[in-house]
Amino acid sequence: MLVRTAGATILLGLLTTALGALVSGSAAAYGALAGTVLVVGVFGFGTFTVNAVAAVMPTASLLVAVMTYTLQVVVMALAFVILSGSGALDDTIDRAWLGGTVIAGTMVWLVAQIVQATSRRIPIYDVSLPDVDQTPAPRAEGAER
Q1: Residue predicted with more confidence, 31 or 145
Q2: Are 80 and 102 in contact (CB under 8 A)?
Q3: Dihedral of the alpha carbons of 125, 53, 82, 108, in degrees to the nearest 10
Q4: Residue 113 near residue 47, CB atoms below 8 Å
Q5: CA 102, CA 19: separation in Å to the nearest integer?
Q6: Most exposed among 34, 72, 91, 106, judged by the fewest C-beta atoms under 10 Å?
Q7: Could you tell me if 107 and 42 are in contact, meaning their C-beta atoms sit under 8 angstroms apart?
Q8: What are phi and psi of 89, to 5 degrees?
Q9: Which segments cross the bilayer (predicted)?
Q10: With bands split at pLDDT 50, 70 and 90, how would you rate the model's confidence at 121?
Q11: Under 8 Å between Cβ of 93 and 30
């Protein structure tokens, strides 16, 4: 699931980078490339972490998912603060192409995960009965019901 979702987002990022280079030059291409790396890195880490915890301890997966989402928001904000403070935005990296690619990449990431999650056949619960001998136990003589 992670590889397909990341692949779709990377494909969008490559197309956006090429479009940015053709339309607005190298700053737009660097902005689109940086946005793609940011989306794939942050959401990829989050998806990997939640899937790893769900495989080991499914009861904790919701808690880890909420904590991971919070961490993703903080990391995204921190990345924009660092880029803005470094002076790279608008000189080397186009702010509009970076933001647009992050938004578009996030949408592609979410849609790809929703499509994959809804198309997988994962049962919610196990309906199989345990192997229990269905023959009644012998009753002692003289015992009444």
Answers
A1: 31
A2: no
A3: -30
A4: yes
A5: 15
A6: 91
A7: no
A8: -70, 140
A9: 30-50, 62-84, 96-115
A10: confident
A11: yes
